[in-house]
Amino acid sequence: SPMRQSYTTSMNINSIKASNDDYEKNQFVDYLKMVMDAESKVERAKIDLALRGDFNVEDAFRVFELDGRGFLTEEDLKYGLNALEIYPTSSDVRLLMKRFDLQKEGVINYADFFDMVTPYEKDYRNMVENRPPNSCCECRCPDVFMITTRIYLKNLFNSLIDYENKFNSAKKGYATLRYKLKDVFKGLDRYGLGYFNDADL
């Protein structure tokens, strides 16, 4: 009958919608897992570098910035990466600039660079922050680190570039989903406080 047909059609549409919602929810969960895995890899690389006794941020900054201006341009970033035997595309460099240029000035200042190469973990961060530079002259020579430390620095920047590319691709994919961030936030903010903590996540 027409009524039965209408009811069946309505049930089919609802079932397709539920199936699509589940698919999009799973896609979003996969996206979050990718971000967490990549962040974890970058943090591990930063901790490994922080544990190197000869590593300090001031000398690392000099690998990229050679003339004492106190900030890095895209060209400086590319030059420094090349000095570490990393040969990024222009897109790689732009993604790094976009992520770490927190003031949106088109450059990365020393504070931005400090965040780029030091762990979030407070104890490791303090360890690096209180470490003096190795260089003892004004020649701004970048070769002040042991070979192993330079390898760790190279690994960190490779991890950062890899992360930014994965994150950018996943973000583009997520933009096509209809799954609403507001709904995600409400699901995580279990007590309606307007925020969520690591346990909620």
Order of strands, widest sheet: 1-2
In DSSP terms (H or I, runs of 4 or more residues), the helix count works out at 8
Estimated structural class? mainly alpha
**Helicity range:** 55-70%
Shape: elongated
Profile the largest sheet. Answer: 2 strands, antiparallel
The mean pLDDT is 84
The whole-angstrom Rg is: 23 Å
- Which range does the strand content fall in? under 5%
Distance between the termini: 49 Å
* SSE order: HHEHHEHHHH
Which stretches are poorly predicted, pLDDT < 50 over at least 5 residues?
A: none
Number of β-strand runs: 2
What does this molecule look like?
By secondary structure, the protein is mainly α. 65% of the residues lie in helices and 2% in strands. It is built from eight helices and two strands, in the order H-H-E-H-H-E-H-H-H-H. It has helices at residues 2-50, 57-64, 74-83, 90-100, 110-117, 122-129, 147-175, 181-188; strands spanning 71-72, 108-109. Strands 1-2 form a two-stranded antiparallel ribbon. Helix 1 runs antiparallel to helix 7. The protein is elongated and about 70 Å long. The N and C termini lie far apart (49 Å).
